From TrEMBL:
Top-level taxon: Bacteria
UniProt key word tRNA processing: no
Assigned protein family: Belongs to the heat shock protein 90 family.
Record organism: Hymenobacter aquaticus
One annotated GO molecular function: ATP binding
Classification via SUPFAM superfamilies: ATPase domain of HSP90 chaperone/DNA topoisomerase II/histidine kinase, HSP90 C-terminal domain, Ribosomal protein S5 domain 2-like
PANTHER family: HEAT SHOCK PROTEIN 90 FAMILY MEMBER
Residues annotated as binding ATP: 32, 36, 77, 82, 97-98, 120-125, 171, 318
Signal peptide: none
Protein name stated in the entry: Chaperone protein HtpG
Keywords of this entry: ATP-binding, Chaperone, Cytoplasm, Nucleotide-binding, Stress response
InterPro entries: HATPase_C_sf (IPR036890), Heat_shock_protein_90_CS (IPR019805), HSP90_C (IPR037196), Hsp90_fam (IPR001404), Hsp90_N (IPR020575), Ribosomal_Su5_D2-typ_SF (IPR020568)
Pfam family, one: HSP90
């Protein structure tokens, strides 16, 4: 048996859903109603420009007022207005969008109409019933010889519609506020909502005798019309307590999608302490959300500013985004614009770029890690800084160190420090050999180093305290030990006993007599894995974060201290070995608490012995 039919939808069932669940935040009702009033005004202006409305436009403000005693909120406009028939068509037919019909009718005559009209779904009006138990519409069409219309509905599917005397064209929507929505009768609350959602609407919005919006925000203007002062002033308006931005990018594209906006690079105080929700998304100058993770690449979430696009798909309540191909295209476009801007700054003013690097380096490195296309552009302007404060590009630095820092396997070894002060002894030892040391001390650098090792041919990175300097960059020549094999074994046993810590692995090495008697290092692989885990490596990195610290204790067989330890009696050799070991701990910032106290006392005893 086969049967065909049509699904029946009963308005008495769908109406409560629209009222209660369409909008997640009840305050949005004011945004929707004001947007409708702006739409009606914009439509009238379009008809005037097309010559289809020949009357006087006059003042075209949208006015919002509240009467706490009468428990009403009124939104008034002097736009198109509606006849009784149009009210029945646009208000009584749920989801019949007047904006859509208007755009379709006039798109050939006025291409700008599409970008000026806000409404899309024809549902916004019903948000009024989230806060009102009764709503009235008083409206009069702009058309000649039409009567005013008065519509009343109590939130059910029943309504009344009658003629009324209304002197002027336009529409007044009167909300009789429900008992559970008293908060919206407070002028301060309404002002806050208007400022949040309507601050940049293209028609003046008046509340309590004051215009609360800027009708021509700077992102809607051409960059050629604006000065640096305009951009910094707007930034201060958006973020009143922030330091001035480093620089900005003005987005302005109309193909293959419409997008305008301004993205600011702020000064970053705490690395990776993402102040998300700093970029505001608008659709035709109506605030939508500050959650823009799909539109803006993840690595640029530290940016501030505004994005406005009618082509970003929104859910039916215009409360959040719906991801689709258009969003991906916009995301890609923003990535390219940011990369191009950074490349331009680098080319035009390298000195200025270097001065800003401490603030923008985080963006660049995060972008390179996150986006392959961004990496390809950024590899030419990402900067490395050495301990002397000099900056290099990747290619410049490879050329700078390759002659002196190639090991016996023809690998270029890049030495770096994560804390130049704490690792000063190791940095100094490297510099004494004529090696250069980079500062890679940001939270992202462990991941960044891994990426560079994958991308750069025959280049490896080693932290300067990861091993003795001779092993960090191994050459063909080897330093001979002055100790016999038996002495080496005895020396290892003496130090192992004196240290008495299974996490400290003692080895005897033939180093230069000028090197320290004992050097404590963390193996590069293990230390890097733990660093990446702390920086948010996740996944398999978790196992490294939970492992105990493991250290290599390199005892310098060619240092005079080794001979003293071997030749002293048992008690003295243990004291000397422990003292040399504690000096190495002190150099690594690892000597603390009781061990530090004992070291100080032992040092005093040795000085007076």
């Amino acid at each position: 048996m086969q049967e065909k039919g049509s699904i029946s939808i009963h308005t008495e069932n769908i109406f409560p859903i629209i009222k209660k669940f369409l909008y997640s935040d009840h305050e949005i009702f004011l945004r929707e109603l004001v947007s409708n009033a702006v739409d009606a005004t914009q439509k009238l202006k379009s008809l005037g420009q097309l010559g289809e409305f020949k009357g006087e436009l006059g003042e075209l403000k949208v006015k919002v007022s509240v009467d706490k005693e009468a428990r009403t909120i009124t939104i008034s406009d002097r736009g198109l207005g509606m006849t009784a028939e149009e009210i029945k068509k646009y208000i009584n037919q749920i989801a019949f969008s007047g904006a859509t019909e208007f755009v379709e009718k006039y798109k050939e005559k006025d291409a700008a109409a599409k970008d000026q009209i806000i409404g899309q779904f024809g549902l916004g009006f019903y948000s009024a019933f989230m806060v009102a138990d009764n709503v009235e519409i008083f409206s009069k069409s702009y058309k000649d010889d039409t009567e005013g219309a008065h519509w009343v509905c109590d939130g059910s599917t029943e309504f009344t519609l009658e003629t009324t005397d209304k002197a002027d064209r336009g529409t007044d929507v009167v909300l009789h506020v429900a008992a559970d929505s008293d908060e919206f009768l407070e002028p301060a609350r309404l002002r806050t909502i208007l400022t949040k959602y309507c601050k940049f609407l293209p028609i003046e919005i008046e509340f309590e005798g004051e215009v609360i919006n800027q009708t021509q925000p700077i992102w809607a203007k051409q960059p050629s019309e604006l000065t640096d002062e305009d951009y910094t002033k707007f930034y201060q308006e958006l973020y009143p307590f922030s330091e001035p931005p480093l620089f900005w990018i003005h987005l302005n594209v109309d193909y293959p999608f419409n997008l305008t906006g301004i993205l600011y690079f702020p000064k970053v105080k705490d690395e990776l302490q993402f102040s998300r929700n700093k970029i505001q998304l608008y659709s035709r100058q109506v605030f939508i959300t500050d959650e823009v993770k799909d539109v803006v690449p993840e690595f640029l979430m530290l940016l501030h500013g505004v994005i406005d696009s009618p082509d970003i798909p929104l859910n039916v309540s215009r409360s959040f985004l719906q991801a689709d191909a258009a969003v991906k295209k916009i995301n890609t476009y923003i990535t390219k614009k940011v990369a191009d801007k950074l490349a331009e700054l680098y080319r035009k003013d390298r000195a200025g770029f270097e001065e800003k690097w401490s603030d923008i380096g985080l963006f660049v490195k995060y972008g390179m890690l996150s986006d392959e296309k961004f990496y390809e552009k950024a590899k030419d302007f990402v900067l490395l800084q050495n301990t002397a404060g000099k900056f290099f590009t990747l290619s410049e630095y490879q050329e700078f160190v390759q002659a002196n820092q190639k090991d016996k396997n023809e690998q270029t070894v890049v030495l770096y420090t994560t804390d130049a002060e704490a690792q000063h002894g190791f940095v100094q030892a490297a510099q004494d050999r004529g090696y250069d040391v980079l500062k890679l001390d940001t939270v992202l650098d462990s991941h960044f180093i891994g990426q560079l090792e994958q991308k750069l041919e025959k280049v490896t990175f080693k932290r300067v305290d990861a091993d003795t300097i001779g092993k960090l960059i191994e050459k063909d020549e080897a330093t001979e030990s002055v100790l016999s094999d038996d002495d080496k074994t005895k020396l290892q046993e003496l130090f192992t006993t004196a240290i008495s810590n299974p996490q400290m692995h003692v080895q005897i090495e033939a180093l230069s007599p000028q090197d320290a008697p004992v050097i404590i290092t963390v193996p590069e692989f293990m230390r890097r894995m733990k660093d990446m885990q702390r920086a948010g490596g996740g996944g398999g990195m978790q196992m490294f974060g939970s492992l105990p610290d493991s250290y290599t204790v390199s005892v310098n067989a060619n240092h005079p201290v080794a001979q003293r330890v071997l030749s002293a009696d048992d008690e003295a050799s243990q004291k000397l070995a422990r003292q040399a070991f504690d000096l190495a701990l002190l150099a690594q910032g690892l000597l603390k608490g009781e061990a530090l106290t004992a070291f100080v006392k032992r040092s005093a005893d040795l000085l007076t012995a």
